[in-house]
Every structure is written in structure tokens, then in C-alpha cells.
Amino acid sequence: MKKIATIVALLLPSWACTPSNNQQQNEAPPAAPAAPVAPAPPSPPPARTAPSAPAPKESLPEPKGPIDPKSTEAAGQVVQSYGALIEQKRWKEANALWGHNEIAASFQKSLSSYREVHLEIGNLGQAEGAAGSIFVTMPVVFYGVGRDEKPFRRPAEVVLRRVNDVDGSTEAQRRWHIDQINWGA
């Protein structure tokens, strides 16, 4: 008896779900089976990405128009130009950004001992006046590869100077120029 009750319990749900003859006549015939779909080609392996480089240091903001050659922003451009020129080993042009030829030549000699030199630029300091001149300091890091293939990083401060528009000053003195570069600790 239990077997019959179990069989009825199993069949009852399927019988209740079976459509009546009237319902079958009103319904559309079942759709033909769809054509087999070709399997999708395997996806290519993920591309290898190079390890991410460290985020570059923040550089000077882009000028929003002509730059006043007397502004500290113009002093910052002198350092940017110097960095670009030493990377390309364009020493004559790089040295022309200095106010003192002998100091420029000496500094060139120390930098040219490296196989590769780059310049990381910090934020300009505040302009300060003294004895008819304006000075501004910018922290930098010289980095690259030595002749021995070892990397190097040397912090420094670039001191820029321009003479105020005083009687007897030359045009070259009134432009921003590198006055000195002091190596950091």
C-alpha cells in the first residue's frame, strides 16, 4: 500500500502539470531545435604588462599664457631647460644657463662622469631679495647611471638669480640664470 501511495505522490505533480488536449491544440507547435552553435574560440592569454613605473613627481604647472620673464615661473623654466639639455648632453647650451662660466664648466665635468643623467624637479621656493638681486631656490634630484653601470641619486638645490632692473645691469644679468647648485646630504 505504501508503494502505491508513493507512486501516486510521484505521478500526481507531473499529471497536474500536463496540459489538457484543449490547451495543446491552441498552442503553437514546439520550435525546431536550433542548429548547433560552434564553440567560441578560446580567449587569448592575458597580455603581460610591464611592472608599473613609479608615479612621476609633480612637475611645474603648465603656463596659462605668456610667462613674465621676471617671474619665478620663468626661473623654474630655466631649471627645466637645464635638465633637458644635460639629458641630451648639450653642454654648451646647458652651461649658457649659468651666470658663471667657470662654475658651469666645473659642474659639467662632474656630471659628464656619469653615463646617463636626468633631473627630477621639485617645487620652487619663495623669491627673496638681497643686494639688488632676486633669488629663488628649487630642490632637485640628479639621477641616472654611472660609468660603472650602477644607478645613482643625488639631491641638490638649484639657486637661481636675476638682477633687478638697476642702473648698470646688463640684459644677461636681468634674466634668470643658475647662480649655484648645492649638493644635498
Automatic annotation (TrEMBL):
The organism's superkingdom is given as: Bacteria
Q: Where is the composition biased (Pro residues)?
A: 30-48
Where in the sequence is the signal peptide annotated?
1-18
Q: Where is the composition biased (Basic and acidic residues)?
A: 59-71
Bias (Polar residues) ranges? 18-27
Keywords of the record: Signal
Q: Does the keyword Signal apply?
A: yes
Q: Where is this region: Disordered?
A: 18-74
Does the record bear Signal in its keywords?
Answer: yes
Q: What is this protein called?
A: Lipoprotein
Organism (species): Sphingomonas limnosediminicola
